[in-house]
Specification:
Blueprint (H helix, E strand, L loop, with lengths): L1 H5 L7 H9 L4 H16 L1 H13 L2
Length: 58
């Protein structure tokens, strides 16, 4: 869910979208998502820039 939230998925769609993903992706892909989220947490400047970029597209 953290990845989708970071990518700007609307709050009211998060649970449904997370459930869809959980039942279709491989463990390897899930680990890649986890690694990406951990990277963003360790690099707050990158997460902030990503958030700003996504907001500018709306």
């Amino acid at each position: 869910m953290e990845l989708l939230k970071t990518l700007g998925i609307e709050e009211n769609h998060l649970l449904e979208e997370t459930e869809k993903i959980e039942h279709t992706i491989s463990e390897n892909t899930l680990q890649c998502f986890t690694n990406f989220i951990e990277f963003l947490k360790a690099n707050k400047d990158v997460k902030k820039r990503l958030s700003e970029y996504i907001s500018s597209k709306k």
